[in-house]
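>> Question from a student workshop board

For tomorrow's exercise we were told to take the sequence and the ligand below, predict the bound structure, and bring the output to class. My setup keeps failing. Could a helper post the expected result so I can at least see what it should look like? The ligand is zinc ion.
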Amino acid sequence: MKILAIESSCDETAAAVIEDGRKIISSVVATQVEEHKLYGGVVPEIASRRHCEAINGVVSETLERAELDFKGIDAIAVTYAPGLIGALLVGVNFAKGLSMSTGLPLVPVHHLRSHIAANYLAHQELKPPFLCLVVSGGHSHIVEVTDYTKMKVIGKTRDDAAGEAFDKAARTMGMPYPGGIHLDKAAQTGDDSAFKLPRPKVDGCPYDFSFSGLKTAVINQIHNAGQKGVTLPVNDLSASFRKAVVDSLMDNFTRAAEDFGYKKLVLAGGVSANSLLRERAAEECQKRGWEYYYPPLELCGDNGAMVGSQAYYEYISGNIAGTSLNARATMSIE
Ligand code: KG4
Ligand code: ZN
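>> Workshop helper replied:
Here is what the output should look like for this input. Compare the format with yours to find the bug.
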């Protein structure tokens, strides 16, 4: 079964053709990051406009690269939640139009479920059940993936997402948007014990995260130093911050795996590109003899391929939308 999938939840206009949920036939990602960089973050109105301009070309190029027309496609899939509402609406309405004009079924896909599915494209042997740490610009969840379309959140952030914390700390250090990747790079040559930073815990909720205090601690250190005319060593601060975030993520993730009896751990989402997180998860899993999976770098960020993968499993579980499908800015992964 070949699915044409569309993604427009944030600042990437993307499409892909995916076969049986596991094989990428073609995939095109048009990023808007250079334009949002000028403003230090995503400007929702600009994102929506750029999706409108790009979507037709991205979908056409995806079909061209796959050497297919709509006769060779079995379903249209689209990210419909969660994300920037104006951005999502562009993809959803485009997909609805395609579905109506071709008569192909329309499959709605949850953005975070698709981040998890990025792993199915890279690891043919990976099947649920497993425990997944989904860490992106907007979400930080520990999710029990009991089946392809059955999930339970057992921990989540109480305030900022991990990616958001990385981006805000990086911005205060003068790095361009999106800062996570720049902070990760700067941290490679830094001393991670140079700065003492908190490891916030949420009372009574051992699997939940809190990153806003950590982010504020870094921002305060930079501002206080600035007021004294001192410039802090960015590499050391990046390394200390990265370690604090990864310690928090991995402490809760491994504790949850132990408590819930999971021996197969998976990373997903934009922050799963973080080199320390990937290393630490590998170490922790190896120590305990657990299986460990993470997406290749090109599938960590937003893309259409992961949407097409998850869409296959949504389709076979009967999740098909009508023409009344609407976009939603927030929606539980469950
Ligand atoms: O999943 P994603 O592409 O978009 C959302 O659905 O939010 O995640 C984007 C987030 C951004 O906050 C970005 O800074 C972060 O992923 N990110 C990283 C790295 N690469 C991307 N954070 C830390 N280290 C990285 N190497
Ligand atoms: Zn995403």
